[in-house]
Amino acid sequence: MAKTRSETMQENRVKLIAAARKAFAKKGYSAASMDELTADVGLTRGALYHNFGDKRGLLAAVVDQMDTEMAARAQEIGARADDVWQGLLAEGAAYIEMALDPEVQRIVLLDGPAVLGDPSQWPSQNSCLQVTKTTVERLIAQGILKPVDAEAAARLLSGAALNAALWIAASDNPQSVLPRAVEAFQALAAGLLLKPV
Amino acid sequence: MAKTRSETMQENRVKLIAAARKAFAKKGYSAASMDELTADVGLTRGALYHNFGDKRGLLAAVVDQMDTEMAARAQEIGARADDVWQGLLAEGAAYIEMALDPEVQRIVLLDGPAVLGDPSQWPSQNSCLQVTKTTVERLIAQGILKPVDAEAAARLLSGAALNAALWIAASDNPQSVLPRAVEAFQALAAGLLLKPV
DNA sequence: AACTTGACATACGAGATGTATGCGAGATAT
DNA sequence: ATATCTCGCATACATCTCGTATGTCAAGTT
Asked: Record's PROSITE patterns (chains A, B) (predicted)?
């Protein structure tokens, strides 16, 4: 098989992102060495700086990938629900559970915002927020939710969910705390309902 | 006046924390140079490593100070309200407004969690969370809020508030977005009420 | 088949952190 | 009051990391 140049380049990008994802998750962004990271996949920093510009660029690529994965999963879970409202609750619970993954926490929730700034201004647009915002907009249009600002509601909901996850993960007994967090989250979300149950 | 040794030591600690607060806010944690920082107050890194152990220790001291200030302010504002429930709403709005301060954002919301880990496991105990938790507990005891887990509710509320602030600050027109965020926050909080209004 | 391009490797320079050692002014004891 | 000791801070050093500038060789082009 003749490997074309752009093929190997694409492969290398994938390799580097995968290696970075591991390294950033394990050591944290600042402690992750670019020399080690690149050597692990048989390359050098030359490849890295050529493809991603700098260390931040690599993190941005990793975050973009993870954010996309998370948004897709949340959307899928939300779509399986009986109605849109149940879908929103399911989405929130899904975010909480996804954020229990140490990789997600370290990279997307902690280092991501610190290095790249607030998620709403990420280059990748933050797909997670978009998904939630769309769901909220639909519910407002259906007259199920109060006519609050959709973006504000989405931000607050995802902020609450992701913060809950950080708390759960840091607790001594995550499995016992998880249901309480989900319960509290659903209570909060119910505050957006036009007609409380 | 004869300066006792522990006096000058205390003064130096105060100076270093003040300088660090400025430097961390302006450059961010990782880009802040400890050489510059200490030189600004007429000291060297020797003083720093003797007093705070390492760079992280200095950040922890700064975060502790800011967190304490924020908690005191939130508590004071909450206490001025007509009743405990209005106090909770006022606390939330206070957090959102305080988090608009770039210094608070950069240090407490972005670098703090990334470097020190989740706020709930900070050495300083995170006074902000304690204040909110206490308020929630009181409201539950009074039968005003649903009997959800107080810590979970506090975490979610403060998470929502602080995330809202990050979003507001990153927006083009913070002053127009602020009221929408506060409105959405209060709608969410109302979800915790036992008897919806 | 010669030439050009560009993806990646190599080499270098500029800081930054943390530690180990040194010093000198306050604290202590006689 | 003098001598000794303590310890808070300064100084010097070793190590590591990022980003850039330059080199190189295979893939693409004509």
From this structure: HTH_TETR_2
State whether residue A194 sits within 8 Å of chain B by CB: no
Is A146 a member of any domain? yes
B6 touches strand C (CB under 7 A): yes
Q: What is the pLDDT of residues A109-164, one digit of tens each?
A: 999 999 999 988 887 778 999 999 999 999 999 999 999 999 999 999 999 999 99
**Same domain, residue pair B121 and B48:** no
Q: d(Cα B153, Cα B149) in Å, to the nearest integer?
A: 6
Do A12 and A96 have their domain in common?
no
**Contact assessment for residue A123 and residue A82, using Cβ atoms and an 8 Å cutoff:** no
State how far the Cα of B26 lies from the Cα of B19, in Å rounded to an integer.
11
Q: How far is CA B54 from the centre of its chain?
A: 22
Domains contained in chain B, number: 2
Q: What is the pLDDT of residue A2?
A: 56
CATH classification at residue A46? 1.10.10.60
Contacts of A155 in chain B (CB under 8 A): 163-164, 167, 181
Per this entry, what is the length of chain B?
Answer: 197
Nearest nucleotide (C1') to alpha carbon of A56:
D18
Q: Name which of A117, A134, A14 is nearest A65 in CA terms.
A: A14
Nearest chain B CA: its distance from A59 CA (Å): 14
